[in-house]
Structures are given as structure tokens and as C-alpha cells.
Amino acid sequence: MPESPTPARFDAADPLGIDELLTPEDLAVRDTVRAWAAERVLPYIADWYERGELPGIHELARELGAMGALGMSLKGYGCAGASAVQYGLACLELEAADSGIRSLVSVQGSLAMYAIHRYGSEEQKLRWLPGMAAGETIGCFALTEPDHGSDPAGMRTHARRDGSDWVLTGRKMWITNGSVAGVAVVWARTDDGIRGFVVPTSLPGFTAPEIRHKWSLRASVTSELVLDGVRLPADAVLPGATGLGGPLRCLNHARYGIVWGAMGAARASFDSALDYARTREQFGRPIGGFQLTQAKLADMAVELHKGILLAHHLGVRMDAGRLRPEQVSFGKLNNVREAIDICRTARTVLGANGISLEYPVMRHATNLESVLTYEGTVEMHQLVLGKALTGLDAFR
């Protein structure tokens, strides 16, 4: 009888052996993004967060573009054409640094670039995508309005015909990258239904005042968009999208990145708690030697690595063309909720130090409160899954 192979040594950083599911190319992408974040974000992020700024955003965007992280899973037009799993790993590493950095990449690639790539004309793709992939042009995606978040069908922003032109009027709210963007993908109501428009932000009537006084995503540019009779040529409309299906498909693509990204924030918080538990002494020994602390660490590790395994499973399905929107809702609902719980538990391990920006835990916890809400609240994803499970629509 042949001998069973000797199991690999238990790895506290990878207790389920998930790295064995990754290809050498996957690992190279992960390690490249991790190294960039360690050099360009982690030494400065606490200060950026405390100041409520993301300085040098254009330089960071160009560096991310040079790394192939913008529009990463798109093909052609200067995009990297990476796999969904590789894009997910990049999102995890970026959000392990800060949710604001991952949001910059998600909005650029999975919303603005994805909308143009999937629904745009060849002329629109050639005009915008290469510069966006390189980080030379930052994009934003404008769907949410001051009075319409979870129900975008109620949007009031409208576009009317004036000869061959379009005239765009309305307001959008909570728009990541808005005040630094060179191009905005704006969704508006028309006589023919909801349409998407590619809007250069330099046009008269377009303004993007930055939203201040945030206590979450502080190292991220968040803006209101005001569209006061912005005149656009006929070819500004995205020809491939009519109705809400267009923007909702874009959001689904971005949510997939969040499934991975939330686990990055959770991992950073867990790692901080684990390191602290090994070195912080109370009652004559490290607190990691006490049963209650070990129970917390074990529970956090279980949910963290289950979440990463779920994200990888969804990535494999996306690469195979088999990922359904309901499955993305499953991942977003589970992973963001569990990430917040991990951060909160990690904070208790650090005690009073858990509220200090000397450690990443509170920063990640407050960021995740925004991630929990944007691109589908908990309640909306519960209803998506509820409808899928029962066949009954509870939205209205």
C-alpha cells in the first residue's frame, strides 16, 4: 500500500492552502501589486486618511496604469487582458492598503472603462480607453443621485435632444474620482429610456464640487456632479446600452472586485491583531496565549479565508463565463459583512490601541462602512438572493 504524502506544514498566513489554487502568473500579479502598495501607499496612508486627502492621485493613477491595474481584465486598447482571478487578487492587495485606493481602481476600470469597452462605439473606445488604461485620464461613473441611490430607475437627470446635439441636466452624488476625472460616464433619462453618455469634464456646465466632512473613505476623492445644460454631440451617447441593464451590468462587474477587496481590508486587520496578540503582554504573558483571544483569532481566520475561497470560486466562474449576478450578490453580501466583523473583533484584540491610526484596524473598519453601502446595500443584496431563492420579487 503506497504511503500517503506528508501534508505541508501548516501556514498561518494561508491555513487552507489557497495559494495552491493560484497559477505562477496569479502569484506574480499578487506580489507585484502587494509590493507597489507597500512602497507607495502604506507609509503614507494614515496621514492621507487623517487629512482627508489623496495627494498625488494623478501620479498614482499613472503608476497603476503602468502596472496594468486599470481596466485590468479588459482586452485591447492598452488594457492588460488579465484573468478575473488576477484582477481580484489585485483588488485584495489594493484594499489591504486602503479601500480608497481600491475604489480608485474599481471605478476607473470596472465602471467607467468597462462601460465604454462594453457599450461604446469603436471611436469612443479608441478615444478614451488607451489613455484611461495608462492612467493619463481618470474616469468616473455617475449613476447615484441625491434622492435616488438603491432605486436608480427614479433618476431625475435627463438628456434632451436639441437638433443633433444632446443637452444634459441634473445632479449626481457620491461620485468617486468626480473632481479629478477627465471623463465621466453619466446615466440619464431620455425619451427613449435611460442612456449612458461619455462626457468630457471640461465642457461648459459641468462642475464637480468635492464632498468634504466624510468619516469613511477619507483617502478617496468623492464628489457631487452638477450638470447644468451640458451640450454634447450626437456621438456622445453609448450606442450599446439602453435601459437600466447597462449600468447594472457595470455595477455587477465592480461588485466582483469588492468581493475580493473586502477580504484585503479584513486580512490587514487580522494580521495586525495577530501580530499584536503575539507581542502584547498582560498578566505576565502575551495575550495571544489566553483562550478568549485565541477564540477571536480562530473565528477571524475562519471567516477571512472562507471569504477568500469564495472570492476565488467566483473568479473561476467569471473566467469560465458562468458567473451570475446573484452569485456576485452572494459574495458581496457575505464578504463585506464578515470583513466588518473581523475589523471590529480585531479592534477588541488591540484594545485602546485599536482606535489609533498607528494601526490600520479602525481605518479599515470605517472604510468598510461605505463599502457595505455602495454598489448595493445589504438589504438590496438580501432581496436579490431572496428573489433568486423563492422566485418572488419583494423589491416593490
TrEMBL record:
Name the UniProt key words of this record, in alphabetical order.
Answer: FAD, Flavoprotein, Oxidoreductase, Transit peptide
| Names of the cofactor(s) | FAD
Q: Which residues form the Acyl-CoA oxidase/dehydrogenase middle domain?
A: 140-230
An example molecular function term from Gene Ontology annotations: glutaryl-CoA dehydrogenase activity
Residue stretches making up the Acyl-CoA dehydrogenase/oxidase N-terminal domain: 23-136
Please state every residue range assigned to the domain named Acyl-CoA dehydrogenase/oxidase C-terminal. 247-389
According to its UniProt entry, one GO biological process term is: fatty-acyl-CoA biosynthetic process
- N-terminal signal peptide: none
Q: Which domain of life is it from?
A: Bacteria
Concerning its family, UniProt says: Belongs to the acyl-CoA dehydrogenase family.
Kindly provide the name given to this protein in its UniProt entry: Acyl-CoA dehydrogenase
* Organism in which the protein naturally occurs: Streptomyces inusitatus
